[in-house]
């Protein structure tokens, strides 16, 4: 063990030495595991920022195995410290070790019921291990779970705002989008939530999985809240298993969505009440309640399309609210949220609905449009690059080539004339 | 339908001269379902054959609230059936009458038995004949044999069998005249059965055999138009139905009484046209249609309705419609569609009324439509929500303002929205591509 320690201390300075050390550490892997209990004190002799690789191996073997609460407490601190100070280059030599340390770290925190303590270190860990901001690591879902449990939704958003394109494991993506959707729901960013959940539901899958089913349930409710409608047909690029099976797993939700489109609040509430237990078990009751209140909003919004002025009492009647007072509160709230444009005349209890004052003439609006154009152009470039990339990919060509076995004579370009000198 | 009846027979002439002056008002004040036996009798006299019975039974079924009328209809149905040979229908009617019409209208078992016995004999005879024909392989005779069988089943009320036999004659048709005959019989039976999908297919079949023009005389053509119109009506394709009825030639006369009376052509065609045509179409195809005018003369109410509608006298138009409604509901073909047609006509009237104005006073509009402002508001609200009327209601001052969509703003909005959608779609597409790629390389890795 001492020799190993010496090796770690001696061989952590440059790249060549590090690869040698890596080989040594790999060979010592089994013996490290055998002595995992005694290794903890050894860590004190190492500096996590200089001897990151060795530190990582020892830490990994220490943290393996089952833990009691007390042991977990002792482990959490060194891991957090290591994550904060370790060297990016060195840990990337052994990414799976690093991932497993981080995962254990999360498990320990769950055991201690202190998810908040893990939010910041986990974010650092993600930043250190990911190759670019577009890279989805296995730590993303872990981080989002910690955010969810500790209700640090804002911290989670910082990760969700980055567009993800590269994925290591499909399961990571499913979980990332599902948890991300939940965080966005918590922050009432329904558009983003819908986007994330949509990604889960339409992701390619060969068998149906529980994450997709749960995501579909939330997807239905969120699209009711955000769009006021839900179409049961999924886009055609959706995996066929999902198209066939998802609906069967979410019957109460489909029923709810169908009743939403009728615009009758009482009916919707009866159905919500009927399946209350089911919604509660799925932890979706809150969303169902939000869907109900969104229905009031939707109905009031519909009134703005048809009326220029309408008394509060009439509003209350037509959206099935109990009193004019309640209608006033709703209208007020919606004006505040910018969902409708209106003014209330309290003297005679009239509401005048106005047109959207946005004239698309301001500098901000032009800026906004310009930035949208830029963003989309960048995206389009990316798409082209991706397309080229794939059409050059030997694996892809191999697959396509196998499907079209024989090459016709026409496929070969004859040598251009001018080279035949 | 009784409104039509009154115009039929001896009253037609009076009606034509009286319309628009005093006669209408008189009619308007009349109780809507009158128990006068005259109505049903006149109505029934328009039809012949089985449809007469089915129409009478339909009236009986749908005027339960008015016993005098129900019994009158049943009585006439009883008499009519007695003339024919349909014992099953006879039993049903007797059961429906249930002794309420006195001893003259009870179960006549002797009659039933004799009819049944005769029917049995006839059937045997026909069967023997048909077998003989079939062994001799004479096409024309086989066709006749099947045809007779069809007629036999039809008169005894076995519509399914009748249809089968009529269709069988098809293989033995030699001239296009035969084919048309086969089609007409099939259409007749299908209408009775309510199988309107068959009706339209046989109508088109009959029309296809038109290569030899002598096979289709103008009466047959008119009949086919009617049948097609009915089929479209049942399929809720009101516009097509209206076209077909409007194309019906006046040669139809009373030749198609076993299915439809010329009065019906006017009513069905007129209502469907009102519900589905726009103003120019209404003018060109209905009001200026000389041919259809002949039909309209038979039912002045419908003509008035159309004229009122075209000249924007909505109150009187809707009034007429309201008065006709109860009677039209007793029509066997129109019954299921009347509500829809009425709603559509009313909505069209509302849309047309609001169309030319920048602002409309709801009080005046309500006046014009003989309704109250609150009700009108609800109707308009529904139309606006459906985007059929581009306007907004000022509920405070009770004024409807036309709304002018701002194209520029709408374009900006749509552009931004499309951009966002594109953004979202492409991102999720790239993600999916990566996943698929991943899965693919995973498979490759496993293989190698």
Automatic annotation (TrEMBL), chain A:
PROSITE patterns attached to this UniProt entry: PCI
InterPro entries registered for this protein in UniProt: COP9_N, CSN3, PCI_dom, WH_DNA-bd_sf
Top-rank taxon: Eukaryota
Domain PCI intervals: 189-358
Extent of the signal sequence: none
BP-aspect Gene Ontology terms: ubiquitin-dependent protein catabolic process
Pfam families: COP9_hel_rpt (PF22788), PCI (PF01399)
GO cellular component: COP9 signalosome; cytoplasm
Compartment(s) of residence: Cytoplasm; Nucleus
Entry keywords, A to Z: Cytoplasm, Nucleus, Signalosome
Family under the similarity heading: Belongs to the CSN3 family.
PANTHER family, sorted: 26S PROTEASOME NON-ATPASE REGULATORY SUBUNIT 3/COP9 SIGNALOSOME COMPLEX SUBUNIT 3, COP9 SIGNALOSOME COMPLEX SUBUNIT 3
Protein name as catalogued: COP9 signalosome complex subunit 3
From TrEMBL, chain B:
Keyword Ribosomal protein listed: no
Coiled coil is among the record's keywords: yes
Broad class of where this protein is predominantly found: cytoplasm
Residues forming coiled coils: 112-143
Cellular component per GO, a single term: COP9 signalosome
Keywords carried by this UniProt record: Coiled coil, Cytoplasm, Nucleus, Signalosome
Domain of life of the source: Eukaryota
Domain PCI: 237-407
InterPro entries: CSN1_C (IPR048624), PCI_dom (IPR000717), Rpn7/CSN1 (IPR019585), Rpn7_N (IPR045135), WH_DNA-bd_sf (IPR036390)
Bias-annotated ranges (Acidic residues): 1-16
Subcellular location: Cytoplasm; Nucleus
Positions of the UniProt region annotated as Disordered: 1-30
Membership in a protein family: Belongs to the CSN1 family.
PANTHER family: 26S PROTESOME SUBUNIT 6, COP9 SIGNALOSOME COMPLEX SUBUNIT 1
Name of this chain's protein: PCI domain-containing protein
Naturally occurring in which organism (per UniProt): Rubus argutus
